[in-house]
Amino acid sequence: MSTNVPRANPLRRFTPLLWVGPAAALIIGVVIWPVVVMATTSTLNISPDGFNLGSAGLGNYRELFQEIALPGVLMRTAVWVVGVVVVTMVVSLLLAQLFNQAFPGRRVARWALIAPWGASVMMTSLIFRWALNAQNGVVNVILHDLGLVNLGTDQADWLGRPVAAFVWMMAVAVFVSLPFSTYAILAGLQTMDSAVYEAARVDGASPWRIYRSITLPLLRPALIVATLINVINVFNSFPIIWEMTRGGPGYSTSTTTTFMFILKQSYIGESAALSVINFAIVVIVALVFLKVAKWKDQVD
Amino acid sequence: MSRKLIASLAIAGVGSLALTACAGGGGTKSTSAGTGPGGVTTLKLVVADYGTGPSNTSSKYWQSIITAFEAQNPKIKVNVTAINWNDFDNQVQTMIQNHQYPDITEGDYFANYAQEKLLYSADQVLSNPDNLLPVFKNQGSYDGVQYGMPWTTSSRTLFYNKKLFAEAGITTPPTTWAQVQTDATKIKATGNVGYGLPLGPEEAQAEALLWFLGNGGGYQNASGQYDINSTQNVQTLDFLKSFVASGVTEPNPASKNRTDLWQQFASGTIGMINGSPALIPIINSGGKLTSSDWASVQIPGKNGPLNTTLGVCDNVAAFNANGHQAAIKAFLDFAYQDKYQLQFDKEYDLLPATTSATQALSSDPIFGPFLKALPQSVQYPSTTSWANTKTQIQQTIGTALTGNPKSVLDQIQQTATKSQ
Fold this sequence. Notes:
Strand order of the largest sheet of chain A: 1-2
Strand content of chain A: under 5%
CATH superfamily of chain A: MetI-like
Radius of gyration of chain A: 24 Å
Order of helices and strands of chain A: HEEHHHHHHHHHHHH
Low-confidence stretches of chain A: none
Number of domains of chain B: 2
Helix content of chain B: 40-55%
Order of helices and strands of chain B: HEHEHEHHEEEEHHEHHHEHEEHHHHHH
Strand order of the largest sheet of chain B: 2-1-3-11-6
Radius of gyration of chain B: 23 Å
Low-confidence stretches of chain B: 9-33
Number of helices of chain B: 17
Structural class of chain B: alpha/beta
Number of strands of chain B: 11
Shape of chain B: globular
Oligomer: heterodimer
Mean pLDDT of chain B: 85
CATH class of the largest domain in chain B: Alpha Beta
Number of helices of chain A: 13
Number of domains of chain A: 1
CATH class of chain A: Mainly Alpha
Largest sheet of chain A: 2 strands, antiparallel
Shape of chain A: flat
Helix content of chain A: over 70%
CATH architecture of chain A: Orthogonal Bundle
Distance between the termini of chain B: 63 Å
CATH topology of the largest domain in chain B: D-Maltodextrin-Binding Protein, domain 2
Largest sheet of chain B: 5 strands, mixed
Structural class of chain A: mainly alpha
């Protein structure tokens, strides 16, 4: 950014404030202030009915780290984020490549891809829950007709078995994350100069070579940003898990986000402590990711 | 080019971060709906929804009372919100946590709110509190004062599908756990579910208690102390664990909710399930079972049928934060009339909660037996730690079926006694 402010009128030095001010106020009010409240809450002893009973020091954090379910929840969160984001990005790369080609009905196909994005995630999750009903869910009925499962059995009860439920929920998370990533990558693809490809072809490069040496490197900025936003979104994803299993049985399909909500019912301070940790995780993951991906090199 | 893209995506990124931040702390603003213009008081009524769909949602029932009430009381307006049973506790609790108090709630009642001094006592908002069924008085009381006012009650029995029993060659309904096991196995052999065991988060605390009672256990001992990890209760869960392992229940009971299994019973594919009168309309609207296809009996225990059952009442609670005592009293006196009690029971197949309405219904062929069982019924604990304990039972007790019953119960016991 340039800072060539004319020195003649000293008041003019404050002109940028006029432009930056509203945005700064918004960020302070909407981002920073809640973080402060959250951090304060995590050190308070708050009754289940929302009354402040004084300071708890680090007691909420101690209680939180003593939760037997916590290690499992943290591990599951890591699997959830890494699994969903990696699959989403790989599939999005393929889809974006496809949508970048000219084919009949491309406009319709592009519109159709927006549907999972436009639909409420809660509704999508509910529909998947119904579709996976052990008795009469459409997925099970199809699998049954193919002779793969028996209705009403443990096998058909996808959401009753923690591991199967978790895999299905990850699939739903991928489904709702695809549109954004695909469009981000598609936007990146469309900025590319066809002259570069032309040159590569003239030099005799194979399509795979072109993809690896030209397309992927040029897509890097789009990939970095799309991945980062996906990491944050998927980490915070609440409705899918809540609607499909409520994090249960027990806490066996909970991530930190749903676990935080379950804790909130009874232990507000402890829940706030977990929020603080969640927030720290997101910030750290984002910083590490940008460092590793050499974000600065891209911008400058 | 790509820089523009990055800039716009980065903005989206900041937005996402903001979401993380917002997910944290609860607000602490206090809003109190005072008296509106023209001296009109607006009451906020929050009720649990007992309906099975939009056609008989509870807000319709309440709206009919409100319409009649407002016609007589032009200075009072009542706004009703009906909340699905699955979300009721959670949503009411969130309102309280955020200090956005309703005036009246009807559904679950927790002693915490009385302890926090958020409630009017029964005699402050009812002209004749003695008409409320005395058997539930203790459950709604805190420090000897009644705050929870029973609105509707129910008791539990074992429903069984006569058609499936005949098909499996069973002539009499079971009275002991061993018979339940045998009969469920026979029904399973017909390709149906032998026994419906809803230990998912919706109502696990009820299903578990019905089994605990069958082995002389429960949540509290005779002197009212929490005794959740008692030997009897551990034994009970050990039995359930082997019962489930034998494959005669629906798969994975820890993730199955009562409503879903009741619907499945109504569709005729479950042999036995514990139910309340509220199951009857679900059976009727299902259209698969006629009234001669099912019956209900006393719940089997380890060595014989239970002589007590779980008596449940849903309570009205009146919040004092908005200071609407007179208006609340006027409305509750109006709503507690016998005709509205009976209308509610007819609509949702539940039992009345006042002495006068009970007398009016005592000779009813369907409700009579349930009403007779009420006075001997066992109730949920009424201590201030019950809310947290109940949440934990709902969330975790099903895990005992695949895990270690003793340690699951130990943890619940810890929660129950921690905040006492």
